[in-house]
Write the structure tokens for this entry.
Amino acid sequence: MEQFTGKVIYQGIAIGPIRIYTKKERQVKRYKIADPAAEIARFEKACEIASAELASLYEVALRKVGEDNAMIFEVHQMMLADTDFLDSVTHIIRTQEVNAEMAVATTGDNFSAMFAAMDDDYMRARAADVKDVAERLIACLINGSSENELLSEPVILVANDLAPSETVQFDKSHLLAFVTHLGSANSHTAILARTMNLPALIGIKPDPAWNGRLAVVDGYCGTLTIDPEEDYLRQMQEKKAKEEEKRSLLQQLRGKETVTKDGRRMRLYANVGNLSDIHSAMENDAEGIGLFRSEFLYLEKEDFPSEEEQFAVYRTALENMGGKKVIIRTLDIGADKQIDYFGLEKEENPALGFRAIRICLKRPDIFRTQLRALLRASVYGPLSIMFPMIISLDEVRAVKKLLEDVKAELSLQNIPFAPVEIGIMIETPAAAMISDELAAEVDFFSIGTNDLTQYTLAIDRQNPKLDEFYDPKHPAVLRMIQTTVANGHAHGCWVGICGELGANETLTETFLEMGVDELSVSPPLILGLRKRIRELGNAKEDV
Ligand code: PEP
Ligand code: MG
């Protein structure tokens, strides 16, 4: 038995086999080969493995998501058999005497650039598919399989690093825990682990030899134990059973009011990133959705989600929540949430860069599509639209103007929509300081303490070296929250908190005293927080 200690990102116990995850985007090294014929044979073997993987993925997808969605794997198989593609790879191996990985990477880049330059939308979208096929082939050449695609049993996922765009691809039912070497406690990947209710550790360097071995993640002590001894395993199984018992006890709080003993109320909403989180929000008795991070819809795709695709998701979210409020935040990409197909330039300081509302105002084509989808969905339930990363009145006025334009366009087309509540995130010190003026423009505020802490304390939330300095309970942050609540209330806005600090039970009483109206937290944390709130305050004596 070997034990490694890291830092806890989310508590919990997981027991199961390890799967080492390696990045899809590989650094392909170029090297000279002595025998091109042997290299071509190696390439052909990789093609056979990749093709078999795609055939089995097609079968799985057919069962899980239907023929239309499974088709993509057939398209990939066709690309893999395309003679132009194959000839190009073998030609490069033969003439340049380089390794197959390099030849595949070069061919993939060339073909993908060719597709990207085409006029036809459908063909342009194939650029990403060619890249995918090339990456699969490279993975097969390097590892003998592209195992990342094939999570078919629940595993403890161990990786060097995980980007949000990678984390969202996993099927939660195949995951037991996350363990990474890099990453910070305040990153979106950490937030996703909490939303998925999966124990997570950082600071443990993966060793490929762990692949497939039984392990235990103790998300209380921060340890990963490989090949646990019988005694330890039994002990951890008992700890896990106790944890599950505690969780099931919390279930008794479903349907109960979120109110202190002395009658102070708090609305308890859920933070979600997709429809499966909505399911978890309902299971945990959320009173509404306080933050739907719509950018995850974009992160899960290889190309811009269409108006129809977005409309279907927003509508389903509203329908599933059965008349409860759903606050959808408009696209908040940039910083750590990077999406290739947006074609954004690399920046020196992405957290202080071109992100969120700044992108939306500069790319109204993208923004209008989302606003149309949102407004069309609004007839299916009480929808609120929330705008991220606001720093000025001008921005708020500009988004409101765009929203009015889109409404006028829908009216002209006789497309129905319902009245929607408009809100903004208060997650920059600028917004907190002018919250009195901003409040006159909108219906509600939601305080994003994750970014508010980052920008107030000048601490990059992505930088693990700064985790110890990242203090969301810093008096400056708490004062900004207090000011925002007071200004919001003075000008007729209700005020919630949707950053991670909202779930911090040591501050629940403080938030109640400040007059915070709503806390929006990861679904698995809702019932525990309700328990905490119901324990606060002195019961009123009967008179
Ligand atoms: C925040 O900044 O607090 C927030 C909720 O938004 P995100 O974590 O997605 O940046
Ligand atoms: Mg934020």
Q: What stands out?
A: The domain at 263-535 is CATH 3.20.20.60 (TIM Barrel). The first helix runs from residue 36 to 80. The pocket of phosphoenolpyruvate (ligand 1) is lined by residues 191, 291, 293, 332, 427, 448-451, 498-499 (CB under 6 Å).
